[in-house]
Amino acid sequence: MRIHEVRTHASAEEFPKEDHLAWKFAKIASDPVDIESEVTEMIINRIIDNAAVSAASVLRQPVTVARNQAEAHPAENGAQVFGIEGKYSAEWAALANGTAVRELDFHDTFLAAEYSHPGDNIPPLVAVAQAKGSTGADLIRGIATAYEVQVDLVKGICLHEHKIDHVAHLGPSVAAGLGTLLHLDEDTIYQAIGQALHTTTATRQSRKGEISSWKAFAPAFAGKMAIEAVDRAMRGEGAPAPIWEGEDGVIAWLLSGKDHVYQVPLPEPGEPKRGILDTYTKEHSAEYQSQAPIDLARSMKPQVEAAGGIDNVESIVLHTSHHTHYVIGTGANDPQKMDPHASRETLDHSIMYIFAVALQDGTWHHERSYARERATQADTVELWHKISTVEDPEWTRRYHSEDPAEKAFGARAVITMKDGTVIEEELAVADAHPLGARPFERANYIEKFRILAEGVVSEAEQERFLNAVQSLPNLEDLNELNIVLEPEVLAKAAKVREGLL
């Protein structure tokens, strides 16, 4: 890897296209480097992971709305939509499938200078691959590029400190991945990346205050926009340039300004694209910074019970990173994060609520833990409101560390009982993290899929899908990656109003 300095350039300044960050990503996308076997295996794992969380969310209202929108756009040479038969326009299939993947906030993550869910790249790439008749090998190469570009952007450019949503890194990574998938030339990919970034920058209000279901749609919409950007670029249309570094570009006006220099790591020509191996998935359906605290709460439950039980807790303070404190902790100053009637999406971004339920129940469930009766349970609300977070500089330093052995997303929990007893423990990474107590491997991904697909996807369809996806390097028909539900299951989907399209 080599570090590239990225800064604003005045319009009058000499700045050749070959030095633009978008061009450098286009070069990466067009580099025909071989894909390493462990990267291929992880790509298969993440496709299984996406299918698992899609099965768990497919009947929910936001996913049903997105699916209905896709159904309004049938296409003879189109892509497939999770849960149903037929072919639909690729960009609308990407929107539907991307929403299904993101709805429960239960798939993979990567956290560095910025945060991300790089599995959001997969639905738009699969949709285009199906529509264009690509092979499994093509898809693997495209996904490897998309993950690489997203991971490199997340390592180098922070968005959230400027209240820009992290999907601004997703549009460019999808466009780059599509460039690899479709074997496009560098200039076409360059133009597509610029358009994709220009059309997917948005504020992060979608993850602040009363969080709505748009949180699930936002990444899916970015993937849809990236497909449309590639389509226009293939037809000869250009993009604003230089998109990141221009005088009126993203860095100058949306990020740290014209005097700031970003350090973005990129693979050298011929260097394998290994970005996906830096990422990790979730065992629990909750924001990633909640993963280790959930496991921590579960491990502390016996000690709390031995000290008198939940009723005797006086206070709980979670010492954690800047990001956790200010995004999902009390540092956010969001009263909604303490509201028993808040939306599921809001509770998902309240570490106080999540720690309380995990400590009481000793477990976490993607539906039961968010149920309205669970959130309004009197003793839960009482415990929840005794929990606060504080930023600890050491946890912030570890959060941003580039050393994988030191990087941490956890917390130190200090539980003070009414009699003065103090119970204190910490956990740096979640049990399912590659460096955790029980790192996720292929068997864990399959188990997660079977658990979430139970009662939704027939056993025969589960087996068919698992056999197809695990043969991805040699798979010729990518329509086999779709999962179709029985009519009686689909009939249980949320009822939604008629729309415009």
TrEMBL record:
Pfam families: MmgE_PrpD_C (PF19305), MmgE_PrpD_N (PF03972). It comes from the Bacteria. Keywords: Lyase, Tricarboxylic acid cycle. InterPro entries: 2-Methylcitrate_Dehydratase, MmgE/PrpD_sf, MmgE/PrpD_sf_1, MmgE/PrpD_sf_2, MmgE_PrpD, MmgE_PrpD_C, MmgE_PrpD_N. One of its GO terms (molecular function) is aconitate hydratase activity. It is an enzyme of class 4 (lyase). One of its GO terms (biological process) is tricarboxylic acid cycle. Belongs to the PrpD family. This is Aconitate hydratase. It comes from Corynebacterium deserti GIMN1.010.
